[in-house]
Amino acid sequence: MFSRPVRRLTQISRQITPLARPILAPSTPLSNSRFCIQELATMAPLPQTMKAARVNKQGAIEEIEVVEIPVPTPKPGEVVIKAEWAGVNFIDTYFRGGVYPRETPFTLGQEVSGTIVALPSSADLLNSNDYKVRGFKEGLKVAALASGGFAEYVAVPWKDVQVLPEGVDTRQGAVSLLQGLTALTFVKEAYPVKKGEWILIHAAAGGVGLLLVQLASQFGANVIGTTSSQLKAEIAKKAGAKHIINYSESSVPDEVLKLTEGRGVEAIFDGVGASTWEGNFTSIRRKGTIASFGNASGVVPPFSVLKLGPKNIKVCRPVVNNYITEPAEFHGYATELFDLIKNGKLEVAVHSEYPFTTEGMRQTHTDITGRGISGKLIVKIA
């Protein structure tokens, strides 16, 4: 009864070289035949070279070039992803410009989404419970935190890869992963936001800012956001901010004290850096927390710990990677993040989409360092 399908599969097998897996034997159930052919397709060898956005030496935007380099050889614990999208983050400018020193040349990028084309080769890893719970298979759509994400193929440690659930596509995965994990871990661990508290979020219409506003508002906080324009103010309000201060027109500390009847806010999330730093000490209330996580206006200057004493202020420098170091931490937060997105409780706004060219990559750095961005920048890799 299987003679015709088997002959057809045999004809197909002769056209596929080299064979990654043996063709179906005559005793193989017909229901498995389609799966076998799909497996053969996913096992196609990787190309020798790929396009990648490289920085030959740290410095100006002109140091970015999209060039051909060898496809990475994965380590035993790495997943290989064929990239579709890659998100742009402010930290990319720090690495390119030299704020964070790095050995050159290197490939830019921190997050990527696409299709799994190769799985880890470590037998011990493949049998571990932490690995099995991820459900990795070739052909699945995933998002990953990936150093060197601006490339056509990326080899990523398995623990930093998350399978995308039904209802979240690769474009959403790339725009949301790093900034989403940043915002989610910050409002839960850097400062656990609680109902009724006053929270100040600088650059409230930026990529991380908009996510912080949404999450803090959902937790029941009274969110004060700072922006530079009326347009950005409207965007931040739509995300859930109750009050907006235009820092180009008003003194942020003065307005914060007015809104809070002189008490100040319980917590400040500050991704701006140097230009907002001193004002934070006026805006914060007694026993408050300042979470300083960015350098958009420059690096925060050194300060004496004695500055914290008059109000018993806490200052932290949260880094998202330290909240998701363990496999279970990353998987737990990433699962929660994509559930929020899938269920419509968290929206990641895309400001602009760019081509994967030298000109396109350079433009991302020009735009993200300007003041006209509200939301996320993303590059279409394939």
From TrEMBL:
Q: Which residues form a coiled coil?
A: none
Per the UniProt record, one Pfam family is: ADH_zinc_N
Instruction: Print the keywords alphabetically.
Output: NADP, Oxidoreductase
CDD domains recorded: QOR2
InterPro entries, sorted: ADH-like_C, ADH-like_N, ER, GroES-like_sf, NAD(P)-bd_dom_sf, QOR-like, Quin_OxRdtase/zeta-crystal_CS
List each copy of the Enoyl reductase (ER) domain by range.
Answer: 59-379
Q: SMART domains in the record, alphabetically? A: PKS_ER (SM00829)
Cellular component aspect of the GO annotation: cytosol
Single GO molecular-function term?
A: NADPH binding
What is this protein's record name?
Probable quinone oxidoreductase
